[in-house]
What we know:
Helix content is 79%, strand content 0%. It has 62 residues and is mostly helical. It has one domain (2-61). α2 packs antiparallel against α3. The longest helix is centred in the C-terminal third of the chain and has 23 residues, at 39-61. The N and C termini lie far apart (34 Å).
Amino acid sequence: xxxxxxxxxxxxxxxxxxxxxxxxxxxxxxxxxxxxxxxxxxxxxxxxxxxxxxxxxxxxxx
Length: 62
């Protein structure tokens, strides 16, 4: 757990609050699939996060 948090710190440090929230959801819900028992919920969250990653990448370019 501590190792994961230490690896996440550089990404969190350079992100705004919205990006931190999305990153933490992605790290602890999507990467650890066993937390989400229902596949439909997992699929909805996964699609939502991928959509937001696309917008965040476009925001960073500008």
